[in-house]
Design goal:
- The structure is a single chain.
- By secondary structure, this protein is of the alpha/beta class.
- The chain is built from twelve helices and 13 strands.
- A five-stranded mixed sheet has the order 2-8-7-6-5. Strands 9-10-13-12 form a four-stranded antiparallel sheet. It has a two-stranded parallel sheet with strand order 1-11.
- Strand 3, helix 6 and strand 4 form a beta-alpha-beta unit.
- Helix 4 packs parallel to helix 9.
- The longest helix is centred in the C-terminal third of the chain and has 24 residues.
- The protein starts with 11 loop residues before the first helix and ends with a helix.
């Protein structure tokens, strides 16, 4: 079943409040107040994205926002210690040349095929604004990153959400219909499922009139990247982030790789919006992170090893989950509701993510932490489930 959402309307309560305010103003002859009630008609109203909780108290085991449990590259720490704050009086390089160069080298593309932004959310939002203007609905799954429909609302883009199948997998045929663009997270969030590159390529190849975005925020943990396809298909944009595998969520670094033409269009929109979107430390430290391949591979390997261990242990406790290729698991217990487990874990100081309602209402998304955090999580769940038995 496909669903289509529209821009949120005023609620009945809001309308009654406006009518009452206008009536009162008319009675008193207060023209200024009456105009103040009317200006809200021009407000662009959206239902905002809700990020995961960021607890401030000490001692919390934070497994709810898919952050890397390890620090960034030691090269980042070194540059941070050496950074000359005097440079902050100058505007940063609007081209972010050092960072762009490091990304292009890493992925064997030309520098004019790389676009950088303040986190992949910034890059994705800029892509929505740039490419999705045909009036036809864009397509993305019913269970996926929940920022996609927020951007569609914000920019007035119609959209449809074809349903994933009963195993939370993409139904390829749903993306071969007429559309104004396509967005696919691969691996998907919050399920962690990765579709094979052959499926992604067929969707791109059979939609030559649409820009196809592949959001690869989690691809480094075992997914199959679409990067090898960017020189083959002009309508493909691959988006990645430094927030997960490169442990730089606090710096906000994201990037897209695509055809020269697509990147040029993105840059034109960016420079019509804000020329200086990335600060000087971020440019330098991001480049250092991208160039430290050995540390990157080591960190990813540690996360993947812990993930596979967590899979085995959760399965032994009665949990089931899709075969995640991300740095999290999308887990459901055989007889204890997800909401109950979420609340019990939170009470114990262990934060995971819960998405109430619909198809996700009996699942927890659990970020892969350190081995020590993982053991604490498993110990609590084992004890709690034994007491419930």
């Amino acid at each position: 079943m496909e669903t289509e959402r529209k821009l949120p309307d005023r609620t009945a309560g809001q309308e009654k409040t406006e009518e009452k305010s206008m009536a009162g103003n008319s009675a008193t002859g207060n023209g200024a107040a009456r105009e103040a009630a009317l200006w809200e008609r021009g407000v662009r109203r959206v239902v905002p994205y809700t990020p995961g909780e960021q607890p401030r108290q000490a001692g919390i085991i934070k497994l709810n926002t898919n952050e890397c449990p390890y620090p960034p590259s030691p090269q980042v720490k070194r540059l941070a210690a050496e950074f000359e704050t005097e440079l902050l009086r100058l505007y940063p390089d609007p081209e972010a040349s050092l960072l762009v160069k490091s990304i292009a080298k890493r992925f064997c593309v030309e520098e004019d095929q790389v676009f950088v932004g303040v986190g992949s959310d910034d890059v994705l939002a800029m892509a929505f604004l740039t490419f999705f203007n045909t009036g036809q609905p864009i397509l993305f799954p019913d269970v996926t990153y929940s920022f996609y429909d927020v951007w569609a609302q914000l920019f007035g883009i119609p959209w449809r959400r074809p349903a994933l199948d009963e195993s939370f997998r993409l139904v390829k045929e749903d993306y071969l219909a007429p559309n104004g663009g396509i967005v696919i997270a691969n691996p998907n969030a919050p399920t962690g499922i990765c579709e094979p590159l052959s499926v992604i390529e067929e969707i791109v190849a059979k939609n030559p009139a649409s820009l196809v975005i592949i959001d690869e925020a989690y691809v480094d943990f075992g997914g199959e990247s679409a990067m090898p396809l960017v020189d083959k298909y002009e309508n493909l944009l691959v988006v990645q982030t430094f927030s997960k595998s490169r442990a730089m969520a606090g710096m906000r670094v994201g990037f897209a790789v695509g055809s020269r033409k697509a990147i040029r269009y993105l840059r034109d929109v960016k420079f019509s919006f804000n020329s200086y979107t990335m600060d000087a430390p971020t440019i330098a430290w991001g480049a250092a992170s991208m160039e430290d391949e050995a540390y990157f591979q080591e960190t990813v390997g540690r996360v993947v090893e812990t993930r596979e261990y967590l899979k085995r242990e959760l399965a032994s406790l009665g949990f089931s989950f899709p075969d995640s290729r991300a740095n999290f698991l999308f887990a459901s217990h055989s007889h204890v509701p997800a909401r109950e487990l979420f609340e019990a874990l939170k009470e114990a100081g262990i934060y995971v993510r819960y998405f109430p309602g619909g198809r996700t209402g009996n699942y927890l998304r659990i970020t892969v932490g350190t081995p020590e955090q993982t053991e604490s999580l498993l110990a609590f769940l084992k004890k709690y489930l034994e007491e419930k038995a």
